[in-house]
């Protein structure tokens, strides 16, 4: 199959390189301190305003990692992307206080999330509703639901300027399998009380290599970016689990590594790259603090969710044609870079 063009060095490839440099710095600083995060109730000094009180909201959405898994997650964050991926470009379809994975069927029970992709996503979402729903993603074959907590600046919600969902060959690329339709994944710790409790959170400013688990005040002429990496290994049996995480694991050994025996099926590394049209400070997230849904959570509570509703054949084609074959592909699944 002929190549259809090459990606500019100044475009997404360069952004990937800058993000890997920043992630490597964070990884080197935190790998030595990797350990199990104690299960403790969230307590935050920021004002708890912006939503009704709830009981243990998102307590089962906490994403704690063993020392081995935290080290694996940080190593994968720092891994360079070397021409084995495809992507979907999506947009916000709006925001609501729903979470169909953690709070299914409980409209208004969650803190506010920004939803991307499938146009029907709400508290009652299931696989059938996603498959039969529309999407604002390119390609249209991706009817998945993606969501993250809403960003606020000085108390006002900020819609993303762009959302790119990368599917990358990071763990055991030659044997990687498509995500099964209906798979649910969450990553990140929305109840973190300090940056060390959430290795998934990473913020940066466009065009700069520095990254941080908490917000950065981006200078004029730049934009705020966040990127979120999901686990790369599946247990091969369960589309979800009681804690929404035990059926998934991070691959061991960084780029080109392998899956643990408990989760033997390698899947593409899902990475959200979200750009917000903001600079400066005054940034907070929707979240749950002290048992209440608020709009004042810190940047290190960032987290994300994925409910897979790709067309099965279209996803399989992209995994085989792009990731296994070792190419960077566009949204149409065709090669743009070897």
UniProtKB/TrEMBL annotation:
Membrane-traversing stretches: none
Start and end residues of each DUF1996 domain: 99-310
Name of protein: DUF1996 domain-containing protein
Coiled coil regions, renumbered to chain: none
Pfam family, one: DUF1996
PANTHER family: DOMAIN PROTEIN, PUTATIVE (AFU_ORTHOLOGUE AFUA_6G11970)-RELATED, PTHR43662
Domain of life: Bacteria
Region (Disordered): 39-58
């Amino acid at each position: 199959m002929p190549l259809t063009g090459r990606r500019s060095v100044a475009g997404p490839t360069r952004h990937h390189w800058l993000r890997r440099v920043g992630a490597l710095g964070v990884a080197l600083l935190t790998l030595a301190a990797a350990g199990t995060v104690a299960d403790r109730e969230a307590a935050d000094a920021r004002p708890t305003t912006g939503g009704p009180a709830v009981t243990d909201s998102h307590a089962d959405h906490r994403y704690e990692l063993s020392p081995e898994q935290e080290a694996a997650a940080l190593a994968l964050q720092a891994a360079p992307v070397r021409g084995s991926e495809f992507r979907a470009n999506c947009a916000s379809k709006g925001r609501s206080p729903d979470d169909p994975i953690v709070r299914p069927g409980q409209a208004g029970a969650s803190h506010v999330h920004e939803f991307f992709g499938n146009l029907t996503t709400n508290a009652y979402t299931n696989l059938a509703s996603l498959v039969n729903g529309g999407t604002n993603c390119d390609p249209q074959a991706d009817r998945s639901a993606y969501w993250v907590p809403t960003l606020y600046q000085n108390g006002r919600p900020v819609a993303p300027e762009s959302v790119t969902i990368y599917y990358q060959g990071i763990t055991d690329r030659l044997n990687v399998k498509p995500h099964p339709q209906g798979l649910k994944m969450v990553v990140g710790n929305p109840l973190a009380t300090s940056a060390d409790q959430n290795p998934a959170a990473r913020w940066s400013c466009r065009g700069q290599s520095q990254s941080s688990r908490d917000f950065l005040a981006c200078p004029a002429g730049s934009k705020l970016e966040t990127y979120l990496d999901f686990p790369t290994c599946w247990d091969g049996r369960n589309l979800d689990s009681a804690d929404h995480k035990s059926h998934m694991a991070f691959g061991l050994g960084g780029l080109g590594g392998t899956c643990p025996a408990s989760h033997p099926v390698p899947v593409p590394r899902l990475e959200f790259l979200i750009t917000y049209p903001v600079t400066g400070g005054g940034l907070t997230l929707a979240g749950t603090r002290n048992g209440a849904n608020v709009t004042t959570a810190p940047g290190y509570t960032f987290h994300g969710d994925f409910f897979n509703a790709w067309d099965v054949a279209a996803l399989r084609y992209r995994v085989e044609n792009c990731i296994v074959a070792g190419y960077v592909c566009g949204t149409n699944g065709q090669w743009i870079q070897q």
